[in-house]
C-alpha cells in the first residue's frame, strides 16, 4: 500500500448522530426540553368540526373544534379499544369515537359510554390523553409537557404593535425551509442554519445565483456571534459598491423560533428595511421531519409567501430534477445531510461559531430540565411582558459614493 492509498473511504469508522440534540420523542433529552414550551400545531381554521390528524414531537394526535367553538387536541387512539379518533364525529360537547360511541370533551373527559349500563357508571374514571390548546397570532399552540410546569404562552413585541393598515397573518407552507410544506430531515439541520450566515453568500449567492437580493449575495465584511437571553444571534455587515453599508441581525430563540428579517430587502420592488416583521417556529414533526409555521405583520394577504427564495428564478416546486441539482437551496443542502445529520463525521471550523454556541446552549438547557429546573424563556404568572428581539436589517451611508 502506498502513502497515497491511506485515508480512503474504507478506513471510515462507524459513526452516528447526536441523539441528545436531535431526537424529540417523549423521554428523550431533547424531547423533554421541547415539551416544556408551547408549539404551533396548526392554523386556527385547522381546528374544525372535521377531525384533523397531526403529528408533533413524534406523537400522533387529532385536532378538532367542538360545536361550542372550543379547540381540542387528543391522543389519536381511543383509550377504549384503540381505534383512531380521526374517524370520530365532532358534536356539541366533544368528539365521539366511531367504534363504540364513547364521547370525549376537549380535555379528554369521558362524557358518555352508550354501550355500557346507564351510559357508563364508571366513565369518570376514564380520561383520553389530551393537551392544552390556545389560539394566538392566527395559530393554534399546544403544550405537551408536565402540567405542573406549564408556562405562560409567550407574546412577541414585533407582533403586538401594528401600524395603520397592518394585520397579523399566519402561514403553514414552511416559508424559510426552501422546500415543501413537510421537510424530510431533522429539525436541527434547519434550526442551526439560521445562525450560519456564511452559507447565505455561498449557497444563496455564488453557487445558485442570488436567491434573495444582490445585496445578500456577497460575503459579509464583518460577522459577530453572541448568546442572547433566549438563544443565539448573528450580526453582519456588508459594504456595498455605492458606499452604503447593509447591517443585518438574525436570531434563534428557544424553543424553535427563527427570527429572520426579510431576506428580500433590496430586491426588485419596494425596499423594506427595519426590524423583524415575522417569526417562524421550526416544528419537529418527529426525528426525521419538520415543518415551519410563520406569523407576521402584513398589509395584504399573501405577503408572507412572497418572502420565499427562488432558485434559478423559480420557486422550489417549479424546478425540474436537474434544476434542483444545479440551483440547490436550503432544502437540498439540509436534506442532503441525510434524514439526521451524522454529527460524528463533522469537521467544525471557525465559520461554525454560531452553530457551536447554539449546540452548547441546547445542551445546557437539556441538563437544566434533567435536574428538574426551568429552561430559558419559560415564564409563569400574570403580567409577563412580550418578548423583544433585536433582529433587523438596515442600510446606511458610510462613505461618499
Provide structural commentary.
The chain has two domains: 45-135, Rieske Iron-sulfur Protein; 151-397, Alpha-Beta Complex (Naphthalene 1,2-dioxygenase Alpha Subunit, Chain A, domain 1), CATH 3.90.380. It is built from eight helices and 20 strands. The chain has helices at 19-22, 29-34, 157-160, 187-191, 198-207, 321-326, 330-335, 353-370; strands spanning 38-43, 52-56, 59-65, 71-75, 89-90, 95-96, 103-104, 110-112, 130-131, 133-136, 139-143, 167-171, 222-227, 231-239, 244-253, 257-259, 274-275, 278-286, 289-298, 392-397. The longest helix is centred in the C-terminal third of the chain and has 18 residues, at 353-370.
Under CATH, the topology of the largest domain is which?
A: Naphthalene 1,2-dioxygenase Alpha Subunit, Chain A, domain 1
Count of DSSP H/I helices = 8
CATH top level class name of the largest domain: Alpha Beta
Secondary structural class: alpha+beta
Terminal residue distance = 61 Å
The coarse silhouette is globular
Order of helices and strands: HHEEEEEEEEEEEHEHHEEEEEEEHHHE
Largest sheet, strands/sense/barrel: 9 strands, antiparallel
- What Rg, in angstroms, do the CA atoms define? 23 Å
Low-confidence stretches: 267-271
Helix content: 10-25%
Number of spatially distinct domains:
2
Fraction in beta strands: 25-35%
Give the rounded overall mean pLDDT: 89
Number of strands: 20
CATH architecture of the largest domain: Alpha-Beta Complex
Amino acid at each position: 500500500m502506498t502513502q497515497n492509498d491511506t485515508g480512503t473511504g474504507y478506513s471510515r469508522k462507524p459513526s452516528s448522530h447526536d441523539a441528545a440534540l436531535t431526537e424529540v420523542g417523549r423521554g428523550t433529552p431533547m424531547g423533554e426540553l421541547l415539551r416544556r414550551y408551547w408549539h404551533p400545531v396548526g392554523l386556527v381554521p385547522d381546528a374544525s368540526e372535521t377531525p384533523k390528524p397531526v403529528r408533533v414531537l413524534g406523537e400522533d394526535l387529532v385536532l378538532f373544534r367542538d360545536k361550542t367553538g372550543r379547540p381540542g387536541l387528543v391522543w389519536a387512539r381511543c383509550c377504549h379499544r384503540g381505534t383512531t379518533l380521526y374517524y370520530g364525529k365532532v358534536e356539541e360537547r366533544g368528539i365521539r369515537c366511531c367504534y363504540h360511541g364513547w364521547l370525549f370533551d376537549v380535555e379528554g373527559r369521558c362524557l358518555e359510554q352508550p354501550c355500557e349500563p346507564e351510559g357508563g357508571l364508571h366513565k369518570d374514571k376514564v380520561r383520553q390523553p389530551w393537551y392544552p390548546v390556545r389560539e394566538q397570532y392566527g395559530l393554534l399552540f399546544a403544550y405537551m409537557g408536565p402540567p405542573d410546569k406549564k408556562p405562560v404562552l409567550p407574546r412577541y413585541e414585533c407582533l403586538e404593535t401594528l401600524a395603520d393598515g397592518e394585520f397579523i397573518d399566519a402561514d403553514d407552507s414552511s416559508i424559510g425551509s426552501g422546500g415543501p410544506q413537510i421537510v424530510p430531515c431533522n429539525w436541527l439541520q434547519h434550526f442551526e442554519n439560521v445562525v450560519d450566515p456564511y452559507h447565505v453568500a455561498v449557497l444563496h449567492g455564488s453557487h445558485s445565483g442570488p436567491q434573495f437580493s444582490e445585496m445578500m449575495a456577497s460575503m459579509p465584511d464583518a460577522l459577530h456571534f453572541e448568546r442572547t437571553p433566549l438563544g443565539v444571534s448573528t450580526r453582519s455587515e456588508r459594504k456595498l459598491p455605492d458606499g452604503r453599508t447593509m447591517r443585518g441581525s438574525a436570531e434563534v430563540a428557544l424553543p424553535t423560533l427563527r427570527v429572520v428579517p426579510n431576506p428580500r430587502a433590496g430586491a426588485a420592488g419596494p425596499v423594506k428595511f427595519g426590524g423583524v416583521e415575522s417569526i417562524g417556529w421550526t416544528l419537529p414533526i418527529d426525528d426525521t421531519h419538520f415543518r415551519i409555521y410563520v406569523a407576521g405583520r402584513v398589509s395584504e394577504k399573501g405577503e408572507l409567501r412572497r418572502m420565499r427564495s427562488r432558485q434559478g428564478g423559480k420557486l422550489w416546486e417549479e424546478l425540474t430534477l436537474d434544476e434542483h441539482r444545479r440551483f440547490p437551496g436550503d432544502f437540498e443542502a439540509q436534506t442532503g445531510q441525510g434524514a439526521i445529520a451524522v454529527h460524528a463525521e463533522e469537521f467544525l471550523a471557525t465559520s461554525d461559531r454560531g452553530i457551536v454556541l447554539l449546540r452548547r446552549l441546547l445542551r445546557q438547557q437539556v441538563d437544566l430540565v434533567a435536574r428538574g429546573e426551568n429552561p430559558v424563556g419559560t415564564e409563569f404568572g400574570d403580567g409577563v411582558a412580550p418578548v423583544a428581539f433585536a433582529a433587523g436589517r438596515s442600510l446606511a451611508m458610510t462613505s461618499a459614493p
